[in-house]
Amino acid sequence: MKNAVIGNNKQKANLIVLGAVPRLLYLLQQETSSTELKTECAVVLGSLAMGTENNVKSLLDCHIIPALLQGLLSTDLKFIEACLRCLRTIFTSPVTPEELLYTDATVIPHLMALLSRSRYTQEYIYHQTILFNHGAVQNIAHLLTSASYKVRMQALKCFSVLAFENPQVSMTLLNVLVDGELLPQIFVKMLQRDKPIEMQLTSAKCLTYMCRAGAIRTDDTCIVLKTLPCLVRMCSKERLLEERVEGAETLAYLLEADVELQRIASITDHLIAMLADYFKYPSSVSAITDIKRLDHDLKHAHELRQAAFKLYASLGANDEDIRKKVSPGEGHAPVLTASKQGVTST
């Protein structure tokens, strides 16, 4: 079937008329079907969807969307990718109602969770973002009020992915209302210290990306008084290693193009001194108190150094006075030692 339908619209139509679609969907959803068979079924269905608009209508009439969305819950990456590829083909057709993607509130968060699975999942899901021009932003924004922390986080991560280097989406997010509050105001609330660190970091990313995309001014209080201090907090040695890396890299991106933000950051909470600590892993103290943590630090020390270098570069990109703070002061020696030897300083 797969070989017969590739590039042949007449054969695709014939198979649909002969009732192939219900049979393929049956096999796709059977627990007794092997993963390989399910994947092949999704591939054939995707090929049928690439035919005429009538083909897509026939697939929709057979309720293909719920079956493919169910397939995304599989643990097999190849099957997931095949389902996503088919979904992308169907949803890029003008005959497919976009609201079919939002009948289940858990679908969008799950799609966002799949972003990190592979390059292909990113590619196939990214094409779904064209739906942001058709009301999808509001559907996802509504998830930020969910009682489930996991759903709120996936919605937040979705916005951070979509706002990155995307002026159109960032400007759209600026004016979205959720229960009477603008979306940036909700992001700011999620930056508060009493919120989980993951939520603080992801909210800071959203605001950072919106700022860099030109939707929020660099001198806006939500950037200067909320986002920047939050990211500096993430650089503290009290934070987990991964949080420090993510915080420093996001802060570096925020500061990269704005001299005033660079100046403010350089005098916020002893940031430059904090960065010097990025080069002190693994330390003898951690070796004595926690062998497991020492092993973790050894594996990831290079990530800390790389993040620190990025932030140093952003801090000193435009202002000579800031460069002087980094060079002769307490932040200089660790940088020099790490860059020359690739090891921690003494």
TrEMBL record:
ARM repeats: from-to residues: 19-55
BP GO terms, sorted: proteasome-mediated ubiquitin-dependent protein catabolic process
Domain of life: Eukaryota
Gene3D superfamilies given in the database record: Leucine-rich Repeat Variant (1.25.10.10)
Entry keyword annotation includes Electron transport: no
UniProt KW keywords: Cytoplasm, Nucleus, Repeat
Location(s) in or outside the cell: Cytoplasm; Nucleus
Entry-linked SUPFAM superfamilies: ARM repeat
Region (Disordered): 326-346
Family annotation (InterPro entries): ARM-like, ARM-type_fold, Armadillo, ARMC8/Vid28
Any matching Pfam family: Arm
Designated name of the protein: Armadillo repeat-containing protein 8
